[in-house]
Amino acid sequence: MLSILIPVYNYNVIPLIKEVHKQASLCNIPFEILVLDDQSEFHSEENNVINNIPGCTFKKLSKNIGRSAIRNLLASTALYDFLLFIDAGTFPKNKNFIRTYLDNIDQKVVTGGMTYLKEPPKKPFKLRWVYTKKRESVPKNQENKRPIVCSSNFLIHEEIFKIIKFDESLQRYGCEDVVFFDSITKKGIPITYIDNPVIHDANDDAETFIKKTEFAIENLIELINTNKLEYDRYKVSSLYYKLNKIKADKIISLIFRISRNLLKRNFNSSYPSILCYDFYRLGYFCLTKNKI
To answer: What is the residue extent of each domain of the chain?
Structure first.
């Protein structure tokens, strides 16, 4: 029936495992929970207790293989036909999280979305919380207009995953989920959005989140250059090409270099600006493109 697949890197996932195990047990279905640790530096020993929970397996890999490869490996070792991917660092918002997915199991691909903690964290963790709230959480009145393409929380049939896997050439953070879901769409397979979110724990401080953002921008540029993504797939790349046509991208690069440290100061404050973050992404995109 259901394989719950959780890739882990430097997270304590015991609370998440206990919650989804409890919910799945109440549904009276055959299930397993597979947890793979991508050579974490922290929390591996405490996560070992997962092996004491019935139907749960925790294994630490001997080397880091990346965000795409670990998801593919989880799917290849799964016992059941339906694969539910949940990211470490998230937690089901609803007590009927598993049941809601089971109610939609006749759909080929289902994504439940992401939401944010009710109480914002203090600096320097607030930027990640603001981003989740403003950019990753879809309002209920927009669910059918713009499904979330997010690998943090989705259900897929094993037969589809055999055809479309995550691109293992992408080893660093960013864009692997967009490439994956775009590949599904290009095959004519519908993606269904349901209101069944996980809560992101905003565990990244501003410095970590900005570093991940830079990795994602670098991945995006590489994907566009190798024709794996269209430039208009992201607002930041679409805007860059508009600016490039009028030779304004170099001006943005210059402004970015001058203001970069000031922007980072804002990100580490109690009032990080999402507009400043948007400009940082655009500025870093322009700067990186102009270096190539």
So the answer is: 2-200, 206-291
Task: Convert the pLDDT of each residue in 190-209 to its tens digit.
Answer: 999 999 999 998 789 999 99
List pLDDT tens digits, range 276-285. Answer: 999 999 999 9
Please give the CATH architecture assigned to the domain spanning 2-200: Alpha-Beta Complex (3.90)
Strand order in the sheet with 198-200: 90-92, 198-200, 114-116
pTM above 0.90, yes or no: yes
Nearest C-alpha neighbor of 165 from the set 51, 21, 5: 5
Location of structure tokens 């059941």:
80
